[in-house]
Amino acid sequence: MPQNVNRSNDNCNPFKLVRALILGAALVPIAPLGAQQAEGPANALEEVIVTASKVGAASLQSTPISITALTSDDIERSLIANQRDLTQFVPNLFITENTTLAQVFIRGVGTNAVFAGADPSSTIHLDGVYVGRPAATFSNFLDVERVEVLRGPQGTLYGRNSAGGTINIISRKPGDEVESKFQANIGNESLLQLEGYISGPLSESLSGSFSASHSAHDGYREMILPTAQVDEIDDEDTQSFRGQLRFLTGEDTEILLRADYSQWDQTVLGYDKVLVFPSLTPTVNSVFGDFKRLPDDGPSIYDREDWGSSLEINTGLSEHWSLKSLTAYRENDMYLQADTDNTDLPILITTIDDQSQTFSQEFNLTANFERLSLLVGAFYYDENNDSNLFLQFLVPGTSPNYFPNVKIESWAAFGQATYSLTDRLNLIVGGRYIDEQKTFNQDFRVNLLATGNPIVGPITFTSVLDGDDVTPKFGLDYQLTEEVMAYGSVTKGYKSGGFNFNMTNPTLPDGSQRAFGPEEIWAYEIGAKGEYLNNTLRLNAAAFIYDYTDLQVQSFIVAGVIDITNAADAEIKGVELEILARPTPRLELSAALAYLDATYSSFRQAQITGGGFIDATGNNLNSAPESSASLAAQYVFPLSSGGQIYLRGEYNWQDQVFFTADNNDIETQDSFGLVNASLGYETANGSWRVVLWGKNLSDEEYVTGTAGFPPGGRSGRPGLPLTFGLRFTWIPGIK
């Protein structure tokens, strides 16, 4: 019988009460529960500094944006390895992937489209550099100082297409003192992770840092077919390196030169958990397997190389004015080959050979006066993406080959000003003008597998898409008390249009272009940020409504062929609550709670797997669970030797999520929870740490995404199983 992941029973949902609590907290700022003391208690929370506003470092609590900021300590103690792990700690963040191509959703805003011709709707920035291709998104958090997740449209200040929000990964700058750290991690499935960094001065005005990591483990999934080309898949073998140089020239100028390189070699996991076989496979010959034993018989190859460099210059022009220049170049090369027919028979092999090169330049001019802070800037982006796709239909013995090339040239002018109307009330006004041109060059042909000779094509053509837009922002923030700030904003988000990478004709019969247009969001948000009980309790809350128009929706036409159209409008409403408390110096508690009502307000022609259309108006958006929660507790036990032992537990719960517009009962994941725990020891001076850890301790089986393979086949991408291990950390130089 096919596996159905059933709809959750809302009557049993423990988050009905939580929703009401979140809504109340988001809409009404809480009065302080205790007066601020001149000096905080021993269990006071540390201040978190962010740079999200781009006008300089500022406290998280005084920044009127919905932000989750994870420090290097947060990343280490929760074993956050890369962007995938953030979903367990950030409200309304959902990250999945098509094989290894990232799909990032923030508050329900994202896209399944990952190939040449389409862009993400929620973005990644690495040290301020926009990372545009989904093939280049995932990176190991190596020598990272902080990760900032900005929720809501960031169309004023951030690069391209940050309609849903953006994830900023911020590296640790080289300092004036020698610092180093080395870490080894061993675990089940032959896990071995080695990483370390060293940083310090090279001369009076020059400092540098270098970091490196290696991560490898065996496959988490076993191949059960005797004809399988590999014994197991979902393994890992990656290497990453990062180097930085920091020059200080005079009192007011800083120059940062950064370079990084990563190499990935894996047997790739795709949509390998069979949910329903396509009708072309006789049931009697079908093998379903389970989450760890998969009926895959084809190749499973994934090779990827990323490298990039950037030059950042920060200089003070006067007492009030400063200038920043950020120049960056990045390359990504990916080769992927996998069995993608969703059967236990050798029918369809997909090969993708993708290369992209990007260049970006940004200038920021900032000013800070007594009542006015101002940023004006310019941004230029140039991308060249070659993505060769080979489909081998072993039955009937043909191979459609697509050779799309996409060139993007985009520039923007932007600015944002914050003016203090009173000592407590600030007005924010900003806007960005973006102008972009995409050129799509296609070479299509169909070859006979037996001879390699073409039977269709070659068909070649060029299509050009021009677009521009203005994205404004208006906001107010008010300091209710010394500890509580409330804010509200109206922001427009914009994502540019694009092309279907496997289109074989630039125009439809009526003469219209097969390109799809941009999508837009008007976002309305209110929020409050406060610290209470002598800075031992931090509570940040937000409520929002989105008017989301012209969604770029991806549908499967036939195996290996997709279609993206501006097919729908949507309304998204939600609330979020983040809590951090330290009742005693030894105990820390945290929670991130979210409620999301994301539905299509108009979607009359939603295509379904296997053919046909339905009216999906009123259905849930994909990858947008209604409720989610992250809970964590950590307790420290001091030892007579001066060292300490700590115990940490984490629980992450997610409501039912749909992966298609028709909200069918198969391509969905029911509500589930994940339990993580760790037990650590640290020496008195902190130079040595040992941590016993485990993730998904209940070995929960779930999928993070699904795909339909016409005519009628459905399968899912399994989530990570139980993993555990022992981590050793050495920080030399601590006395």
Structure described in brief:
This protein is mainly β. The chain is globular and about 75 Å long.
Describe the fold and architecture.
The N terminus is likely disordered. This protein has two helices and 42 strands. The chain has 735 residues and is mainly β.
What distance lies between the first and last C-alpha atoms, to the nearest angstrom? 63 Å
Assembly state = single chain
Counting helices, strands and paired strands, the structural category is: mainly beta
The helix fraction, in percent, is under 10%
Rounded to an integer in angstroms, the radius of gyration calculated over CA atoms is 26 Å
- Global shape: globular
Mean pLDDT, all residues: 88
* Major sheet size, sense and barrel closure: 23 strands, antiparallel
Number of strands: 42
Count of runs of 4 or more consecutive helical residues: 2
Low-pLDDT residue spans: 1-38
Strand content: over 45%
Considering the chains and any ligands shown, give keywords for the structure.
735 residues, mainly beta, 5-stranded mixed β-sheet, 3% helix, globular, disordered N terminus
Question: Topology of this protein?
Answer:
Elements: H1 15-27, E1 49-50, E2 58-59, E3 66-71, H2 72-77, E4 93-98, E5 101-106, E6 123-126, E7 129-131, E8 144-151, E9 165-171, E10 179-187, E11 191-201, E12 206-217, E13 221-223, E14 232-233, E15 236-249, E16 253-266, E17 273-276, E18 293-294, E19 300-316, E20 321-339, E21 348-368, E22 372-393, E23 398-402, E24 405-420, E25 425-448, E26 454-479, E27 484-495, E28 519-532, E29 537-558, E30 561-584, E31 587-602, E32 606-607, E33 613-614, E34 627-638, E35 644-654, E36 657-658, E37 668-669, E38 672-682, E39 688-695, E40 703-709, E41 713-718, E42 723-730
Parallel strand pairs: 6-9, 13-18
Antiparallel strand pairs: 1-2, 3-8, 4-5, 6-7, 8-9, 10-11, 10-42, 11-12, 12-15, 13-14, 15-16, 16-19, 17-41, 19-20, 20-21, 21-22, 22-23, 22-24, 23-25, 24-25, 25-26, 26-27, 27-28, 28-29, 29-30, 30-31, 31-34, 32-33, 34-35, 35-38, 36-37, 38-39, 39-42, 40-41
